[in-house]
């Protein structure tokens, strides 16, 4: 066996071990941030739960802020993946919006209440919404990196609304970023009611009610007329056949 092949063979197991260590730190980090919040969470506790030294955590992450950002980013990526894989592409914009709102509420409330509280509470400290686009650096010191994370997280909704404009279903006279805030704002208040007041909601009904409230504000003024015209055209075409 050539001598030069040996280092590569030795590196592969080390790389796999490092990747597994990162996954373990992120898994336990998510648990601790969910239970403690950002301020009370410590890298010391994360290391203790893993049975490693705190220095081991710092080998892979420069500090608590970077680790927390990665935990939130990974959670956001999971939600984005569910939305993008399940979005009914052939449906109209309203039906797609219904899917996005329902999925957002379901994953934030049913599968990730603790992380939801973390995201919302840190957003309040920044004087901006962490489920919309951040506006100011400060507070936890997440800064521009978090602003970009928020843009990435809200991109599926922005693309949905943009496609709706191209179809003539969503109004064009208001900037997309304001339409995005119109959707995320009420959802944030709904989430706070659950987290702070302990109010239980029916996610299915809440998402239907919210979209019924939002759609008239998002819909292009002549969209309903256009939809009726298209329906009439389809009926006339069917009758000709």
Brief write-up:
This protein is mostly helical and 241 residues long. The protein has helices at residues 5-40, 43-50, 54-60, 64-86, 93-109, 113-125, 143-167, 176-197, 203-218, 223-240.
Description:
With 241 residues, the chain is mainly alpha-helical. It folds into 2 domains: 9-61, Orthogonal Bundle (Arc Repressor Mutant, subunit A), CATH 1.10.10; 65-240, Tetracycline Repressor, domain 2. The chain is 77% helix and 0% strand. The chain has 10 helices and no strands. It has helices at 5-40, 43-50, 54-60, 64-86, 93-109, 113-125, 143-167, 176-197, 203-218, 223-240. It is elongated, with a radius of gyration of 23 Å.
Question: Layout of SSEs?
Answer:
Elements (H helix, E strand, L loop, with lengths): L4 H36 L2 H8 L3 H7 L3 H23 L6 H17 L3 H13 L17 H25 L8 H22 L5 H16 L4 H18 L1
Structural features:
2 domains; 241 residues; mainly alpha; 10 helices
Low-confidence stretches: 5-10, 127-140
Q: What is the number of E strands?
A: 0
Major sheet characteristics? none
> Rounded to an integer, what's the Rg over CA atoms?
23 Å
Task: State the name of the first-level CATH class of the largest domain.
Answer: Mainly Alpha
Name of the CATH architecture of the largest domain = Orthogonal Bundle
Classify the beta-strand content into a percent band: under 5%
């Amino acid at each position: 066996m050539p001598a030069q092949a040996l280092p590569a063979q030795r590196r592969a197991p080390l790389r796999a071990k490092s990747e597994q260590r990162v996954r373990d730190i992120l898994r336990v980090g998510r648990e601790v941030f969910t239970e403690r919040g950002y301020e009370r969470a410590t890298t010391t506790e994360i290391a203790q739960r893993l049975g490693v030294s705190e220095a081991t955590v710092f080998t892979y992450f420069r500090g608590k802020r970077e680790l927390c950002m990665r935990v939130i980013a990974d959670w956001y990526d999971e939600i984005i993946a569910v939305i993008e894989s399940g979005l009914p592409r052939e449906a109209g914009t309203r039906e797609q919006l219904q899917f996005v709102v329902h999925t957002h509420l379901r994953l934030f409330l049913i599968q990730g209440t603790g992380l939801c509280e973390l995201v919302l509470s840190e957003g309040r400290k920044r004087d901006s919404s962490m489920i919309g686009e951040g506006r100011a650096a400060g507070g936890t010191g997440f800064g521009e990196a978090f602003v970009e994370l928020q843009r990435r997280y809200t991109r599926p909704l922005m693309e949905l609304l943009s496609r709706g404009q191209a179809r003539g279903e969503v109004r064009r006279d208001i900037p997309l970023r304001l339409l995005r805030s119109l959707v995320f704002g009420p959802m944030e208040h709904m989430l706070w009611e659950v987290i702070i007041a302990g109010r239980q909601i029916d996610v299915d009904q809440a998402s239907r009610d919210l979209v019924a409230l939002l759609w008239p504000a998002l819909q292009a003024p002549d969209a309903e007329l256009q939809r009726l015209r298209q329906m009439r055209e389809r009926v006339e075409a069917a009758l000709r056949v």
